[in-house]
Task: structure prediction
Amino acid sequence: MSQVTIISGLERRRTWSDDEKLALVEASMEPGANVADLARRADCRPSQIYRWRRELLDPTPSAPTGFAPVIVEKEVPPALPSSSAPVAPVGTEPSCAAIIIKLDGAVVRVAADAPPALLAAAIKACKR
Result:
């Protein structure tokens, strides 16, 4: 004989009490227990029983996901030493030898005779 469950009203999901969850998890932990058969008899999915197992055996929640706090300072010190050298427009190529770094849509042009500290700072800024 088959069983038919009629769902009426707005509630479509079955709510399980903590005692019901605990009883199913304990039954699934017994030697020789078959979680698929147990889930079929309880009218739920095996993955649900495995989830309850995880939740009951490790009650500490995982690290929360979300946004990291941001602190905005009033004045930001310059990352590079200020220079009075003019900056070439983005669309133009340098007329002398230069190092061009293209990364994620940003283009950084450094003159070939630039100090090594300036080049290191430009590369470090691109890695951020």
Q: What stands out?
A: The two ends are 65 Å apart (CA to CA).
